[in-house]
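User: Run a structure prediction on this.
Assistant: Running it now.
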Amino acid sequence: MTNAALRISEPVLPVAEEVAQAQEAARALARFVAETPQGQLSIEDSAHRMHVVLPRAAVLLLQGILREMAQGHAVTLIPVHAELTTQQAADLLNVSRPYLVSLLESGVIPYRKIGTRRRVLFEHLMAYKRVEDAKRMEALNELTRQAQELNLGY
């Protein structure tokens, strides 16, 4: 695999025709996954004499991509070992770049410097996100519990 293939791609925002195609493909792939839980997907193109077998993990990843595109969402693919700029990392967390830098500088998220530039491993960023998401869910569950105890109609 070349370095170019490992670069973080720009988000792909589907146009209306692609959304419709993605909806149809997502439904078909969902049926395939439901009917063949351990199977691999085989793609054949007789015009070009090409035959490709996708491993199960790739099929599930493709299903997720199609599901997002079918909703008109932008999609990007990032390798787990990718190093992100602070702006890319901030965008993924949906926070400002200065806030992300404060997380890096305080040691909450590991990073390395290349010259004067900070780089964050995608896997470290996702580990931080999982912890924060779990904290948010815990707080939400606690608020829900309190609301139910107080008969607030939730």
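The chain is about 55% helix and 15% strand.
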